[in-house]
Amino acid sequence: MHPASHARTNPDKPAIIMAGSGEVVTYGELDRRSNQVAQLLRARGIGVGDTVAMCLENHPWFFCLAWGFQRAGVHYVGISSRLTAPEIAYILEDSGTKLLFGSAHGAAVLDEVARIAPDVPQLRLDSPGPLSAEDALAAMPATPIADERAGVDMLYSSGTTGRPKGVKIPLPDDPAIDQTNVLVQLAMAAYGIGPDAVYLSPAPLYHAAPLRWSMTVHKIGGTVVVMEKFDPEAALAAIEKYKITDSQFVPTHFVRMLKLPEEVRAKYDVSSLKCAIHAAAPIPVPVKQAMIDWWGPVLYEYYAGTEGNGSTFITSQEWLAKPGSVGRALSGVLHICDENGDEVPRGTEGQVFFEPSDPTLPVFEYHNDPVKTAESRNKHGWSSLGDVGYMDEDGYLFLTDRKSFMIISGGVNIYPQEIENLLVTHPRVADAAVIGAPDPDMGERVVAVVQPLDIAEAGPTLAAELTDYLRGQLSGVKMPRQIDFREQLPRELTGKLYKRLLRDEYKAAYEQAQVGASA
What is the pTM of this model? Predict the structure, then answer.
């Protein structure tokens, strides 16, 4: 299963449709372009096992590049187009990238990257002149390279708790570019995604889920509709216009759609949806319930990471019986462990680990970081993404939070996700982050940083309203001691929240105040 085979049998079928512009890339064109990409890599001396990267927005050429890399046997890195030049340069150096593809959209930042990392050559889409990717590719044959071999992505963590780390998985033992994989089997068996699927991808393609799931749909032979940028009403319009059958979202997408005026939500026909997959972040129970009430039992949730060490899965029907669960283990054997790495009884909270269900499969490592790789394993060799949760008697996993986000106030462990979930269900709140800020008496105090729907409402009156709202639902120790307001939280478009930035900011302010007090 590979786009090349669909290009032979159905060359005029749309492989990619850009939701906003309506631009179409057929399977025939995808095959030609990806061959030219692979040819270009070989012409530039880039061989099997080398690393290349792309840093661009959701672009019609994105998957042409990705499939070209895949059939050239390289590790390919997707870099966020929202990063700064030093952040991009760090990833290029850390990954050993030999060629970077970008676009005119990010020219200013990429020019700075070229100054910082002059040894990494660049090609850019939509950029006439010596850096033109289109010109370089047009000079290449549109036929397969002689040494086709399956490559694999090498994606970097979003840096929510530190510098991003590359998740490096060995190239597949089977070199065939059309080999099937677990994700293809899952998509077809669990989600019912088939060749007639019209799949909506609303998130940035440089992240694991949008990239891998969209490429999975291409393997199966469906059509991927790519949103250039997420907008809640535009997503509903795309579902109606393209008769979307399958899609993937993150909880913040659902929150934004639910907070559209009722008359806006009601004007779009979403009845074509058979499967709306969501993952990437915990979802508040009321939000998921509201989405099922609106769209029907078409929501499917999974828990997994870029590392690919294991996963869980749950249907809408199961979730209605187990509200808040992310499902039972689908790949890997699920374990909940204490700080010593020992398994705890069902219903007891601990760190979430996966044991490989097949010990012969390749395992991930954090590139150039053996310490972090070792820290992700326990004494049994099971691996963890750093999340905390518990399993019930039926084997359903309930996530509490990330271990690194835990607040310790007066010796009490507080997981901020519960507080955040309550805040985002308030009708005046668009987004919320809860962190631990330094406190001389308690060690840390609970601080809520809130993004109101209307920033003009920010102030003491709204803070008091939110405090009253939380007081009836939280124990006293979990109550925020401080509520601050921001026009925008530092959240990645995939739903990941950069709490590190907020915590560093509050820590710096505290340290500065201490210096001032002692002066």
Answer: 0.80
